[in-house]
Amino acid sequence: MISVDASKCTRCGRCIADCIVQVIHRGKDGIPAVPEQFEKHCMHCQHCLAVCPTGALTCDGHAPENCAPAGPLPGDALMMNLIRQRRSVRTYKQENLPPEVMEKLVESLRWIPTGCNDHRLAFTLVDDIAKMEPFRARMRKITRFLIKSGILRVVYPGSKRFENALLDGKDFVFRNAPHMIVVSTPKDAPCGKFDVSIALTQFDLYAQSLGVGTCWCGFAYYAFTLNRGMRSLLHLPRGYKVGAVMLFGPPAVEYSRATAPEPYTVIRP
Ligand SMILES: Cc1cc2nc3c(=O)[nH]c(=O)nc-3n(C[C@H](O)[C@H](O)[C@H](O)COP(=O)(O)O)c2cc1C
């Protein structure tokens, strides 16, 4: 809930105007407050905290002095470079990221936007290369079975050309990545199917700004979704389902230029 320092509040009303769920009203002396009967409707988005120009408002125990002040942004040219130069990295150095880089990545997760500000996303983070081995080992077993039984060729007719490499243990799914992040969401999350993609898109761009290689992993998503044994390795909370998977780590490949992708269809009604 909010508390307002009356000595700092100018009664400008910005917190009231910016409250999407309209729970903030003027109380005594025009000071903003949330009437008790509205408290349950608060989305805890902290817009009131962010918008207050004088730092008069504390929200859910978070004081303005504990929030980063508005700082310089990358600007459109640098953002565009990041967007153009983000590549799916499929070759990694066989080492862990420095712990301080890992911590920056973990810290960034707090600012992932979700529908209705639902902060129930859960992340399974493989932060040590040795901990990827159980995933790879189980995947090797499953792949072997899929090839030997002929199922792989039925579901993916083009797989014939990979079969020998796969049987030799090529890590086609996890790409020998040292790290992996899997985002899961409660089955009843109002916007779960969007939240998970936004989560890893944001992670992806921030990671690449730090020089970390990343790769979306649809194969692993299906492995976790379809195979209970694989899924058990994720230690998901009860009632959660896998949303999306990203591999990451120090890249062992460099790209000399951006790509020149075909434009998508843009409809302007
Ligand atoms: C939802 C999704 C799933 C993907 N799954 C895989 C995957 O399982 N393995 C892989 O190597 N690349 C995967 N990719 C990477 C795409 O192949 C890649 O984004 C695309 O070829 C464009 O290349 P770029 O990301 O370097 O621009 C996936 C990408 C997305 C968005």
Verbal overview:
- With 269 residues, this protein is an alpha+beta fold.
- Helix content is 33%, strand content 14%.
- The protein is built from 10 helices and 8 strands.
- The strands form 3 sheets. It has a 4-stranded antiparallel β-sheet with strand order 5-6-8-7, sandwiched between helices.
- A hairpin with a 5-residue loop joins strand 2 and strand 3 (32-33).
- The protein starts with a strand and ends in a 20-residue tail after the last strand.
- It binds flavin mononucleotide.
- Flavin mononucleotide binds at residues 87-88, 90, 215-219.
Task: Write a concise synopsis of the structure shown.
This protein has 10 helices and 8 strands.
The largest β sheet comes out as:
4 strands, antiparallel
Average pLDDT confidence is: 96
Shape: elongated
Distance between the termini: 43 Å
Tell me the helix content.
25-40%
Radius of gyration, Cα only, in angstroms?
Answer: 23 Å
| Structure class | alpha+beta
Number of strands: 8
Oligomer: single chain
- Bound molecule types: flavin mononucleotide
The strand order across the widest sheet is 5-6-8-7
List the helices and strands and how they pair.
Elements (H helix, E strand, L loop, with lengths): L1 E3 L9 H4 L7 E2 L5 E2 L13 H5 L5 E3 L15 H11 L13 H10 L13 E5 L6 H16 L2 H5 L7 H5 L11 E8 L5 H18 L3 E4 L1 H9 L1 H5 L7 E10 L20
Antiparallel strand pairs: 1-4, 2-3, 5-6, 6-8, 7-8
The structure holds flavin mononucleotide (FMN).
